[in-house]
Amino acid sequence: MDLLSNTAFEGNGNTHPYDSIDRDYAVSSFHRTARLTASFNWALPWKPQNAAKWLLGGWQTNGIFTLQSGAPLTISNGVDISLTGIGQDRVDIVGNPGFAGDRSRGEQVQQWFNTAAFAQPAPGTFGTIGRNTLRGPGLNTFDFSAFKNFPMPFSEKHKLEFRAEFFNLFNRVNLGNPNTARNNSLFGRITSAGDPRIIQLGLRYAF
Among 93, 61, 64, 59, which residue's Cα sits nearest to residue 76? Predict the structure, then answer.
């Protein structure tokens, strides 16, 4: 979890009007270093005969896979140490905010970054760290669905559609962003996550 370079990144406004704009020159808050989205749509080639055709034939499957790096994070002081009455002061960086080596998910949840790497600035100052200098957790999810139309024997215009939809099919834990306010007791801790697996079944009658 290295600090991001300030070279050739986009600025999108001065966070603190009294601070140097140089520390606001960073990636935009919606920036993602990498994002991959892949989808498929496949009509299963089974062609059973007789009664089995009504039940086993005509299935269609769909899927969307999303892989994305984490969102930028700005470490705030949480206290108006600059005495400007605005309350958007950042912190002094005094060490390496990253951890060496792999860590368990539990360790990441308890402390996403090294909180000891940040200190409260001196009164009347704005902090030495820039805007959007860290990254939060990424996203990895796969949504899947299967559809089938059952034709009605009494009319070609009448159909019964069955839908089975699975959001986050593999039930992967996608962690939320950590708390980034230094004066908060939960500083550096992750307290939220994305949705677990959600299954939705439905029937639709068209005529």
Answer: 93
Percent of the chain having pLDDT more than 90?
56
Whether 111 and 188 have beta carbons less than 8 Å apart is answered as yes
Q: What per-residue confidence (pLDDT) applies to 201?
A: 96
Let me know: does 153 contact 184? Beta carbons within 8 Å. no
**How is 79-128 classified by DSSP, letter by letter?**
S-TTSSS----B-EE-S--S-SS---HHHHHH-SS-GGGEEPPPTT---S
pLDDT in tens, 83-93: 887 777 889 99
3-state SS, residue 155: strand
Picking from 184, 169, 166, 64, the residue whose alpha carbon sits closest to that of residue 115 is 184
d(CA 168, CA 101): 28
Question: Mean pLDDT, to the nearest integer, of 62-87?
Answer: 89
Among candidate residues 123, 128, 129, 24, the one with its CA nearest the CA of residue 83 = 123
Separation of alpha carbons 52 and 203, rounded Å: 20
pTM for this entry: 0.77
Domain boundaries, the chain: 21-206
Pairing of strands 59-68, 35-43: antiparallel
Distance CA 82, CA 35 (A): 37
For 7-67, the DSSP string reads: TT------SSTTS-GGGG-S--TT--S-EEEEEEEEE------THHHHHHSSEEEEEEEEE
